[in-house]
Specification:
The protein is an all-alpha fold and about 55 residues long. It has 3 helices and no strands. It starts with a helix and ends with a helix.
Length: about 55
């Protein structure tokens, strides 16, 4: 999607004449976010204590 926006700006600014992304129709399948199982959460919390970067981000 970011490339399409860049190409759109380039077309409007007359930096390019042809949209090279016009024929691209690929979209990844989206299954949504899945919750972690309790054992995976426990492993994460054991490995990364409160205040560590992975726990704050």
């Amino acid at each position: 999607m970011g490339i399409r926006k860049l190409v759109y700006v380039a077309l409007r600014q007359d930096w390019i004449e042809i949209d090279p992304t016009a024929a691209v129709e690929w979209r990844p399948a989206y299954a949504g976010w899945k919750a972690w199982p309790r054992d995976a959460m426990a492993q994460f919390e054991t490995r990364w204590p409160l205040g560590s970067a992975p726990r704050t981000g």
